[in-house]
Description:
Elements: H1 3-10, H2 20-29, E1 32-36, E2 39-42, H3 45-53, E3 57-58, H4 62-68, H5 76-83, H6 92-103, H7 106-110, H8 113-125, E4 130-132, H9 133-138, H10 140-150, H11 160-167, H12 177-203, H13 209-218, H14 226-257, H15 265-275, E5 281-286, E6 290-292, E7 295-297, E8 302-306, H16 307-310, H17 345-362, E9 367-368, E10 373-374, E11 383-385, E12 387-389
Parallel strand pairs: 2-8
Antiparallel strand pairs: 1-2, 3-5, 4-12, 5-8, 6-7, 9-12, 10-11
Helix pairs in contact: 1-2, 5-12, 5-14, 8-10, 8-17, 10-14, 11-12, 12-13, 14-17, 15-17
The chain binds protoporphyrin IX containing FE.
Amino acid sequence: MSAAQAVAVLLDPKANHEPVAAYEALHAHGPIVQVADGYYFVSGYEAVAGVLRDPSTEAYDARRLDQQWSDWRENRAVEIFADSMLRTNPPQHTRMRRLAAGVFTARRVAALRDVITAQVEEALDALPPEGDLVTHLTYPLPIGVITALLGVPAEDRGRFRRLAEALTAVLEVRWTAEDRRLAHEAALELEDYFTHLLAQRRAEPREDLVTALAAAHDADGGQLTAAELMANLTLLLVAGFETTTNLLSNGIVLMLEHGNKIDDPAAYVEEVLRFDSPVQLTERYTSKKTLVGGVEVPADAELVLLLGAANRDPARFTDPGVFDPGRTGNAPLSFGAGAHYCLGAPLARLEAQITLPALARRFPGLTPQGKPVRRPRMNLRGWSSVPVTLEGSV
Ligand code: HEM
């Protein structure tokens, strides 16, 4: 495959959910390829890491959206991401990030270990003898954990899978008019949901993140605007489970393929993150002429950073196409790097490090029952169903 053919595969929503061969072709070409005027794909590990850590590069923010798409504010899903920390730049990003990091501390996450362990055991107890692990485990578990942390009532959990699937379509490299419409409707529904929840928490404050973020908005000289409050609540909820679901399902499918045995949970999860990255790409813009992977890129260029490709760069990883949980010096870019490094990385890792070994231990005879089905997405990469039987385990 040539580099041009690889780019065509990655831009085709019908083909880009199987990107590995295209990544290999890009690696043979070099760390960066120009796709169009001012538009590049970056696949080399050092080049991607360098762009993410370069403070002169910018996230895809409202200013860039204005330049590309005059009526983007008519799509509420696009607008919500643009108002959140994910798609803002300093000084807004620094302010929001500091605030969220203040409530989302390492200590608060570590304290969740017992809650997560209890939720995993409960989910494993309830598994049917035959069924789909996406429905019965990899969705309900991360939804249960993030809603507990945010303070979203347990009885509302059922709606979030559909809403998150629809909303996150706008994070793909290409989307259809139908994706756009469903994403917009999902954003409106979530907004309505959080408007009611915020009113309840203001009336009766609790020890949860919804109350803490509302207080940050309401305080004198409020640190968050109303739009930012809504956007970051939505981001935390959706980013908090949609990606973790994919990490769990990718890990389970690899476990089924490689024998249900996990010696070192932390190393195992790092290798799942590298080999089958739950987030395959993000974007940055250059604010000035910049050298990327040895190529001079002009100011205001759009760089699609292929995290999943960087994690399979043969210049960085020996035998990148081999799943090897014993790999040393493994440092995948799956959670990004630099100023926007994933705020939830410790939580996602903890959930996977508890869930995957618990599943392997509890059901040593876990066997696939038919083929797992890939989600029809490139960026948020996971499985829509992983049918298994527990037979022989209990
Ligand atoms: C940012 C991946 C789980 C919240 C990011 C970024 C990546 C990522 C790649 C950086 C995007 C960029 O630089 O443009 C993942 C993966 C996860 C995961 C692979 C699971 C396996 C979570 C969880 C939460 C979360 C559990 C919250 C509870 C966030 C937030 C940001 C972010 C708030 C934006 C940070 C900022 O812009 O400063 N995530 N994430 N993520 N993630 Fe995650």
